[in-house]
Amino acid sequence: MEVSNDGAIVVGVDGTEPSERAAQWAARQAAIFGKPLLLVYAMQWPVYTSAHLHAPVGIGAMEPGVTEEPMRRWARDMLEGLAEHCRHTTGVDVHTEIFSGDPADAVILAADRVAFVVVGHSDHGGVAEFLLGSTAQRLARSCPWPVVVVRDEVTVDGRRDEGPVVVGLDGSPVSGRALRFAFGFAARHAAEVVVLHAADGEVTTVVEPVETHDEAVLREDVGPLGAELAACAQRYPGVRHQLMSVPGPAVDGLLSASAEASLLVVGSHGKGAVRRAFMGSVSHAAIDRASCPVAVLSPQTTESDQR
Q1: Around Cβ 288, how many Cβ atoms within 10 Å?
Q2: Which of 104, 128, 215, 230 could make a disulfide contact with 59, Cβ separation 3.0–4.6 Å?
């Protein structure tokens, strides 16, 4: 699953600071990938309000007196203000859509052809952050496109965009998709790919980084996915890569690597020899605890042959 050039980057927004941060991150990616940006807002009933915004955003404390038209008017103003900011700062083509219903469903239904989906996430606590987190987790499990979760720690000025792209492998088919996405993303950012491999669930030894295009060597290190890694290296000859094992539980290695990464890429619900070593529960932990944006690919993620 490479980053597709066929479709928009879709962002789920709700007027909160985490979603605005996600939209700004997505706008930078749209400029880099040469794609349009689609901002999506979902109106839910009963209407809720945000205590810190004093406006209906679908999250927060219930406000029974709010009716549909004022909420829709607020949503249009919020979307257009955010769209104008993204246009001004990045020059990208920005569109907006308002849907009724669940935020995760709205994002999935927003476009037929999508490069990837972006949502915000916060761990500051409270109802708003809980719903933001649950939307991110649901999309990560079931969205047909890659989902990038932008956390609170991510700066909006692009300073973290220069770090490596870190991807976790566990030998499952979905981790192969994660690998292809990581190389495609890194190629656009002129970034290095760091491949973290779990050989036995908990890797107990640290090996020297391996940088090679030799399929035989890669197969010896990571099994069948060595062919996939070799193919990615050949398809993107300008992308430097390192293959590394990490000490301790797989999730600890990924979270540690995320401190210097521009993007962490994982799969969800892996079914490899080391079941869920990097997948499933690890993707959940990455969304909640990583220090950089997290891209999650599920078995439902649509494959694409386009660069």
Answers
A1: 16
A2: 128
Contact 111, 139 (CB under 8 A): no
Structural contact between residues 25 and 293, judged by C-beta atoms closer than 8 angstroms: yes
**In sequence order, what are the beta bridge partners of 118?**
11, 148
Tell me which residue has tokens 């400029």: 31
Q: Is residue 258 part of a domain?
A: yes
pLDDT digits (tens, 9 = 90+) for 22-44: 999 999 999 999 999 999 998 87
74, amino acid identity: W
**Residue 19, domain extent:** 8-150
Tens digits of residue pLDDT in 63-85? 555 567 788 888 899 999 999 99
DSSP code, position 210: B
Q: Are residues 166 and 205 in the same domain?
A: yes
